[in-house]
Design goal:
Elements lengths: L1 E7 L6 H15 L3 E7 L6 H6 L5 E4 L6 H11 L4 E4 L11 H8 L5 E5 L7 H18 L11 E4 L16 H7 L4 E5 L14 H19 L4 H28 L10 H33 L14
Parallel strand pairs: 1-2, 1-4, 2-3, 5-7
Antiparallel strand pairs: 4-6, 5-6
Helix pairs in contact: 5-7, 8-9
């Protein structure tokens, strides 16, 4: 079964056409499907228009919680084993779903839509290229369009994954960190014809901070002592160097301890280093308590094969 999920917020000019095109495309695929709208709540007529459509499941939030929350709840309530994620602005073409689905069934867990010919303002395209290059460098996987909202994924890939902030922009990177197979295919991209973009400078800043969170969780979540302890040792080493330099300057008669900030820096770096190492130990303890109390593991088993 296919579950198509799209978040809406003040998209009254798009939802009717989006639903019609989705229904037409999904009917041609010939598989059971459901359409899920995670609604804002909008301040225009989006909700009444959604209520007039069928088939559709509408998830209405009490207050605006953001795209990540909308996608999380949509995925949680999805009945299908394959989920299709896309925005409601009609910039992505629902008619591309079949070829993305075909690619997924070649053995992949997630297929992203690569907006090869984007119809966005120049500054957005330039920023996107920089963000994609940076993300590829940080997470160690090559994709042209990490932040594409158009994705076809196996629902099992979202098991034990919760999206916060702007982390929905890094779903492929998160999947890759968990060992899932990801790829992308070129898709059509159009200009927004109705409504206002939700893009903002603040959103861009959140995306870059969330990239650091993704990097930490992918590389160090299961071994936090390696992260905190590593930086703690660096800090203590810098403190040791500053202390040695201060002592050498003292014996050479160049500066006394009161004439240079080096002794203070030495003490500061050493204290910070010790605190970081202690934080690493505490994080290791909390990590183990969390998984042992939940009866869960920090890894995912895809399948178990046994021949007798």
């Amino acid at each position: 079964m296919l579950s198509v999920i799209f978040p809406t917020y003040n998209e009254e000019g798009n939802v009717l056409e989006l639903h019609a095109r989705l229904k037409k495309t999904l009917d041609t695929i010939g598989e059971p499907y459901e359409i899920i709208a995670s609604e804002g709540p909008s301040t225009d007529n989006t909700l009444p228009l959604l209520k007039s459509l069928s088939p559709i499941k509408i998830i209405v939030f009490v207050k605006k919680m953001g795209q990540a929350a909308a996608l999380n709840e949509g995925i949680r309530q999805a009945q299908g084993d394959i989920v299709v994620l896309l925005d409601a602005d009609l910039q992505n073409s629902p008619e591309d779903i079949p070829k993305m689905l075909e690619r997924l069934r070649e053995g992949y867990d997630s297929v992203s839509g690569w907006r090869k010919n984007r119809h966005d303002p120049l500054h957005r395209k330039l920023l996107s290229r920089f963000a994609n290059a940076l993300t590829s460098r940080v997470v160690g996987v090559e994709l042209h369009d990490f932040s594409s909202p158009f994705k076809v994924c196996r629902k099992e890939a979202f098991r034990n994954i919760m999206l916060y902030g702007e982390m929905h922009a890094f779903v492929p990177a998160i999947f890759h960190a968990h060992g899932f197979k990801i790829t992308e295919v070129p898709v059509e991209h159009s200009e927004r014809r109705s409504g206002k973009t939700k893009y903002s400078s603040l959103k861009v800043a959140k995306i870059f901070t969330d990239l650091m969170v993704v990097k930490f969780f992918s590389d160090y979540f299961a071994r936090p002592l390696l992260f905190f302890g590593g930086w703690g040792l660096v800090s203590m080493f810098l403190g040791f160097v500053a202390g040695v330099v201060a002592i050498v300057l003292k014996f050479m008669g160049l500066w006394t301890f009161t004439q240079t900030p080096l002794p203070v820096l030495a003490a500061l770096f050493i204290i910070v280093g010790v605190l970081l190492v202690m934080m690493g130990f505490l994080a290791e303890i909390l990590f183990r308590i969390y998984y042992e109390n939940k009866g869960r593991t920090p890894y995912i088993v895809k399948e178990v094969l046994e021949n007798k």
